[in-house]
Amino acid sequence: MSTIPEVLVANHCGMRVFGMSLITNMVVLEYDSDVKANHQEVLETGEKRGKDVQQLIAALVEKLSL
């Protein structure tokens, strides 16, 4: 995942880190599979779950500010 290098550097700098991922599509394990990954599926899932992620982050920030 692309967040790993950033988290390693932040941790090395003494920063506390919270990481979260939104799984947006199924993995295709075999090269010759009839199932193909597509970017549209990723975009649609992000659109569907965007508000949920916003609410989760807002709740976490609220808890941290107490």
Automatic annotation (TrEMBL):
One of its GO terms (molecular function) is purine-nucleoside phosphorylase activity. GO terms for biological process: nucleoside metabolic process. The keyword Transmembrane helix does not apply. InterPro entries: Nucleoside_phosphorylase_d, Nucleoside_phosphorylase_sf, Purine_phosphorylase. Pathway: Purine metabolism; purine nucleoside salvage. Keywords: Glycosyltransferase, Transferase. One of its GO terms (cellular component) is cytoplasm. Pfam families: PNP_UDP_1. It catalyses: guanosine + phosphate = alpha-D-ribose 1-phosphate + guanine; 2'-deoxyinosine + phosphate = 2-deoxy-alpha-D-ribose 1-phosphate + hypoxanthine; inosine + phosphate = alpha-D-ribose 1-phosphate + hypoxanthine; 2'-deoxyguanosine + phosphate = 2-deoxy-alpha-D-ribose 1-phosphate + guanine. Residues 1-62 form the Nucleoside phosphorylase domain. Gene3D superfamilies: Nucleoside phosphorylase domain. Its EC number is 2.4.2.1. It is an enzyme of class 2 (transferase). PANTHER family: METHYLTHIOADENOSINE/PURINE NUCLEOSIDE PHOSPHORYLASE, PURINE NUCLEOSIDE PHOSPHORYLASE-RELATED. Belongs to the PNP/MTAP phosphorylase family. This is purine-nucleoside phosphorylase.
